[in-house]
Each structure stands twice: as structure tokens, then as C-alpha cells.
């Protein structure tokens, strides 16, 4: 596996960690004092835990590629968590955005 492929994998892993962090932050946001909850502290810790790995990723991928890959994979995962975890529904326009995000990842991967 090339360093670029590893960096793509790490970026997707960090997206998953970010989604997990967002899940806990969403739960914390429903509390009377969200900043004092263990869910907020866990979400914050999960976000912070990825900082060191981003250095590896940015050594091997263009910043624009990192942004597209991270944002698109995070969008897909957050939509799944929102749907199954919080009962949120996607509108037709959101499904189109979802498809375009996946298309951007396909175009990105072809560049590497």
C-alpha cells in the first residue's frame, strides 16, 4: 500500500472518529449544561485525538484532496448516523447532495 493510499485510509478513519465525536456532541447539546457533560468531554477528546495523524495525511495528500475526502466521507457517515441514530430523514435535495459528494470522491480517487 502506497503512502497516498494509507493517507486516504487514515482520512476516512478520521472522518469516522469525527462522526463519533459529533454523535456525542449531539447528545450533549440536548442537556441543560452541555459543556459540563461527559458526552461533551468525550466528543472534544475524540476530535483532539486526530490532530497528530493529520500531519501524516497532509504530508501525502494535497490539502484540497484532504478537504474533499474528509468532508464527503463525513457527510455520508453523518447522514447514516442521523437517519439510524436520531430518526432524521433526508429530503430529495439532500439525496442529490449525497450523490454529488460520492461523485466527488470518485473523481478525487481517479487523480491519485
Q: How many DSSP E strands? A: 0
Spans with pLDDT under 50 lasting ≥5 residues?
none
The helix/strand order is HHHHH
Number of H/I helices: 5
Mean pLDDT: 88
How much strand content do the residues show?
under 5%
* Fraction in helix: over 70%
The global form is flat
Q: What is the total domain count? A: 1
Distance between the termini: 13 Å
Largest sheet: none
**Structural class of the helices, strands and pairings?**
mainly alpha
Using the CA coordinates, give the radius of gyration: 15 Å
Describe the structure.
This protein is an all-alpha fold and 112 residues long. It has one domain (3-111). Helices cover 83% and strands 0% of the residues. The chain is built from 5 helices and no strands. The chain is flat and about 45 Å long. The two termini are 13 Å apart.
